[in-house]
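Before relying on records like the one below, remember that each one covers exactly one chain. Contacts with other chains, cofactors or solvent are not represented anywhere in the record.
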Amino acid sequence: MTRFFKLSGGGNDFVALAEPPPGALSKHRIRRWCRRGLSIGADGLLAIDRKVEGGIRLRHFNPDGSPATLCLNGGRCAARLAFHLGWATGTIRLATDAGPIKAQDAGKMGIRLQLASPKASPRAVSLALGDQTYDGWWTRVGVPHLVFLWEAGLESAPVAKLGEKLVHHPALEAGGANVNFISCPESGRLEIRTYERGVYAETLACGTGVLSASFVLLAAGKTHLPLTALTAGGFELRVDGEWDGDQLQSWSLAGDARLIAEGNLFPGAEELPPPPVWTGGAVKASAI
């Protein structure tokens, strides 16, 4: 058995392991544990360890088992779990592959993350798909993001259909990018839907996507800080910081981070069947 916690941050849900034993984080296990309907199911897996003085080491894995440099909704959840376990009180430092992050308890079910400003400004991109061209921005906030201002409104945005085609567009760097569709109904307010690589589906929230979209809107002169972002999960995340009209001096992301459950993963959580093969051909599903 493997002890686990289930957490949710702004709509992203995670399986979390505290100080996982050697061998627990195989790609095989992560893929199966995160499989919805057949196992515990999650948008990703978090592993936290007390191996950093004054803080924790945070590793994040996508549901396909691949490691992710940064996940801010996961970061808030990791801090919430560390506070729950008594590893720290009030504030804690997270050591991530994207650099150190300071996490603060922000009251009822809220965590605030303070992190370093991006090193490079958003870059305009035009991506061709057949006879259509999609103009947007590329930026990196820990992980790469595409951001498209969707004037027609997010309710009708083809997030899954277009996200699937753009996430690994040949014009992008190896590894692709998360794909964000945003609207800015007024300065200081952002609405966003995100198709995430590694998940290969729309998720209910993406923290690095919210910061990427905020950065794009600030650079385009369309908003100011503080900024409130409405996510597909219905939660609002708050972006704050110092913008001097040209670059970010500092910024933070605050929002929901909840401990949902604690339990044990039994062997049955990873003993899953292969995708079915129907009469007439194989079903279109990734191997698990």
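Residues 72-84 form the longest helix (13 residues).
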